[in-house]
């Protein structure tokens, strides 16, 4: 498709929908496949599926890849394998609604990192939007009771999601330094690095006696994660960052809880509490304000 016909908002909204589905798949997989094995199967299938299309480009980009191989390997380990491993582990301890809302903290991580590391200029509306988003995330993490934050009495799954958010936020910031090579080359190298790390995580899980082989539901969840959040969404996300930059692109992750809440209620049967509604209003308001502030600052 010609570049002029691909709107970044459509690209990144699709990413948000597919990642919301990843939270649902992770929740449906809980108890049907162990999280590290799920991560391994996801990246094994993703790497195998993308290889036939990517290898010609990898050969053409080999010199650039070799020069930055260690850096690309680290990106794959942090942004793909580690984020997903923690994500699926969190799904065993908290709800899909909470997981998707807590992902909305990613833009804040990217914003803070870009500001302190690269002195990226920001508008006041952006700061207000990030702050409003943070309120929604904190409200969800605390399950509607902010006093639990003061006592650090957090659900294990919610605490794990905060850690996962830090991993993916760092990955997003680091994408600005990726080599200028074909997008299929990037996906294949990062997926391969993630596969290597996933083998290590699955081995540790097995050594601890925590491995659970997949049944039909676990296998179906693994297949979904390999195709949609792994290949399609990651590819579109990289393209979105290229189109409008990491700060603005990461804002669209705030749409994940909207789609995630709807899917969790419809598919998983989770209950939407009043504090979830308040949190969703906050993150939607945050993305609106921050995006408006970015446009004004750019103009």
UniProtKB/TrEMBL annotation:
Transmembrane stretches, start-end: 41-58, 70-90, 96-118, 125-144, 159-177, 184-204, 216-237, 249-269, 275-294
Principal location class: membrane
Pfam families linked to this entry: EamA
Source organism, top-level taxon: Bacteria
Mode of membrane association: Multi-pass membrane protein
EamA domain residues: 9-141, 156-289
Annotated compartments: Cell membrane
UniProt keyword list: Cell membrane, Membrane, Transmembrane, Transmembrane helix
Protein name, entry field: DMT family transporter
Taxonomic placement: Bacteria, Pseudomonadati, Pseudomonadota, Alphaproteobacteria, Hyphomicrobiales
């Amino acid at each position: 498709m010609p570049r002029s016909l691909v709107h970044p908002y459509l690209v990144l909204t699709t990413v948000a929908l597919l990642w919301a589905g990843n939270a649902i798949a992770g929740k449906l997989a809980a108890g049907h496949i162990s999280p590290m094995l799920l991560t391994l199967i996801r990246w094994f299938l993703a790497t195998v599926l993308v290889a036939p299309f990517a290898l010609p480009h990898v050969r053409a980009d080999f010199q650039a890849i070799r020069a930055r191989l260690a850096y690309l390997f680290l990106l794959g380990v942090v942004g793909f394998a580690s984020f997903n491993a923690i994500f699926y582990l969190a799904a065993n301890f908290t709800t899909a609604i909470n997981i998707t809302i807590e992902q909305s903290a990613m833009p804040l991580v990217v914003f803070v990192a870009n500001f302190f590391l690269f002195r990226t200029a920001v508008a006041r509306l952006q700061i207000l939007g990030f702050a409003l988003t943070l309120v929604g995330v904190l409200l969800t993490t605390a399950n509607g009771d902010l006093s639990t934050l003061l006592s650090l009495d957090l659900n294990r799954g919610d605490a794990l999601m905060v850690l996962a958010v830090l991993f993916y936020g760092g990955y997003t910031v680091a994408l600005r330094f990726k080599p200028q090579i074909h997008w299929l080359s990037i996906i294949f190298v990062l997926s391969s690095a993630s596969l290597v790390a996933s083998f290590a995580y699955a081995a540790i899980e097995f050594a601890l006696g925590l491995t659970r082989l997949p049944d039909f539901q676990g296998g179906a969840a693994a297949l979904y994660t390999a195709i949609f959040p792994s290949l399609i969404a990651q590819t579109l996300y990289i393209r979105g960052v290229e189109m409008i930059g990491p700060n603005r692109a990461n804002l669209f992750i705030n749409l994940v809880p909207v789609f995630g809440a709807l899917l969790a209620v419809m598919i998983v049967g989770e209950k939407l509490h009043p504090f979830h509604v308040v949190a969703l209003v906050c993150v939607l308001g945050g993305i609106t304000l921050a995006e408006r502030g970015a446009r004004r600052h750019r103009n």
